[in-house]
Specification:
Elements lengths: L1 E4 L3 H12 L4 E4 L7 H5 L3 E2 L3 H7 L2 E4 L4 H8 L5 H4 L5 E4 L5 H12 L4 E4 L2 E2 L2 H6 L2 E6 L2 H14 E8 L3 H29 L4 H9 L6 H12 L9 H17 L5 H15 L10 H5 L2
Parallel strand pairs: 1-2, 1-4, 2-3, 4-5, 5-6, 8-9
Antiparallel strand pairs: 7-8
Helix pairs in contact: 9-11, 9-12, 9-13, 10-11, 12-13
């Protein structure tokens, strides 16, 4: 049986892919209502993370923050108290590498194997099974999990030992935050010069500077539809803050990222934390 804890924007879609592929699934979430659509399709509900661990041989966690991962992992009803020796815990949350290494160590003390396997991609790729997994851990454990990764994603990149998957995710999202911010600023600037927004965006997307994510985000900016978030301001701000903390620990400066992170921080401060992070365009628009 496969366990899945964290049925949010991403987790619900990832778990849904596993269920649609015929996997037997036991799920847990802080609020049961979010898991109800999966339960209606055949997933089994578990009252606690510990209960998930007691029933499953492989457990995925997809949670919002390091604090949320700890809340699930530790304590009397925590996942680590339920996981059986020899089982595999795969954490797809975006957390800092040092935290992943600690989780792996604590899991190993209970005879549990651990992979940090955060993903690149938002709600739509998760729905289609087109995520990219950045994985840290042993090659043997990666191969055991690969058939499940292949159901949910299009690529599995083994980056090295525990912590390296988490490290790659922070690097990826640091660039993601900067890319969408640069695009938002460029479009807002072009409009201030009198350029037509749709034509402006098409010119930018047809040029050499357009990253694939911008083709996906263009519709958010064209329609100014930010309240239905594919990836929230709070999430990109948290991820860039984790990158900043990790950079500090390694005595590395992130001058560009620090400025961009502050912009997302301002959005959050202005009550836009639940909006899609492309809403930075709205903030910058004249």
């Amino acid at each position: 049986m496969i366990g899945f804890i964290g049925i949010g924007i991403m987790g619900s879609r990832m778990a849904g892919r596993l269920l649609a592929a015929g996997k037997t699934l036991v799920v847990n979430n802080r609020t049961k209502e979010k898991a109800d659509p999966l339960i209606e399709k055949g997933a089994k509900w578990a009252a606690s993370p510990r209960s998930v661990g007691e029933q499953a041989d492989i457990v995925f966690t997809m949670l919002a923050s390091p604090r949320a991962v700890d809340a699930v992992a530790y304590g009397e009803e925590g996942l680590l108290n339920g996981l059986k020796s020899g089982s595999l815990w795969i954490d797809s949350s975006t957390i800092n590498p040092a935290h992943s290494i600690k989780l792996a160590k604590d899991a190993a003390e209970k005879g549990v194997r651990f992979l940090d396997a955060p993903v690149a991609g938002s709600a739509a790729p998760a729905e289609k099974g087109e995520l990219i997994f950045f994985v840290g851990g042993s090659e043997q454990d990666v191969e055991k999990a690969r058939p499940l990764f292949d159901i949910m994603g299009k690529d599995v990149q083994h980056k090295g030992p525990n912590g390296q998957g988490a490290a790659m995710k922070l690097v990826n999202n640091l660039m993601l935050g900067q890319t969408v911010a640069a695009f938002s600023e460029a479009v807002a600037f072009g409009e201030s010069l009198g350029l037509d927004k749709e034509a402006l965006i098409q010119s930018l997307l047809g040029g050499p500077t357009a990253a694939p994510i911008l083709h996906f985000k263009q519709h958010k900016i064209l329609d100014e539809d930010f309240e239905k978030a594919d990836f929230k301001v709070t999430s990109i701000y948290k991820d860039m803050e984790l990158a900043a903390e990790e950079a500090y620990a390694h005595d590395f400066a992130l001058p560009i990222s620090s400025t961009v992170k502050s912009l997302y921080g301002l959005l959050k401060q202005k009550g836009m934390g639940e909006y899609d992070f492309a809403s930075l365009y709205k903030f910058l628009k004249k």
